[in-house]
Design brief:
This protein has 3 helices and 7 strands; from the N terminus they run E-E-E-H-E-H-E-H-E-E. The chain is globular and about 40 Å long. This is GNAT family N-acetyltransferase.
């Protein structure tokens, strides 16, 4: 999302079959033959609270459907807890399909899937 010449929000996602060395991406790749993986969502501090996150996710789901991909995946921290992310993803139909410890055992993620 741009405002003038400035990028104020973006979402980075990968399809299956890419060489991406993320333990979370690899977890999904081992279980789902066709998926879209949300790696990160960034919204500038000056633009938070303006519903840009939901805008990016609606666009992502539209892209997934147009690309004939019916599985959208992501993860968020449960240790330390990220309740805001849990609520956000739940509103888009994500549900937990697994969990794992990352960052040398210092953090735990909830591995989530939603149907596009």
């Amino acid at each position: 999302v741009c405002e003038g010449d400035e990028v104020v929000a973006f979402l980075l996602a990968f399809r299956e079959g890419v060489a991406y060395d993320s333990p979370n991406y690899v977890w999904f790749a081992q279980r789902y033959p066709r998926f879209l993986y949300v790696d990160r969502v960034v919204v500038a501090g000056t633009h938070q609270g303006r519903k840009l996150g939901p805008l990016l996710y609606r666009d992502l789901f539209d892209f997934a459907r147009a690309s004939d991909v019916d599985t959208v995946t992501c993860e968020f921290y449960t240790v330390p807890p990220n309740e805001a992310s849990r609520r956000f993803h739940s509103a888009f139909g994500f549900s937990e399909v697994g969990s794992q410890w990352v960052a040398d055992g210092r953090k735990q993620v909830s591995l989530q899937v939603a149907r596009a």
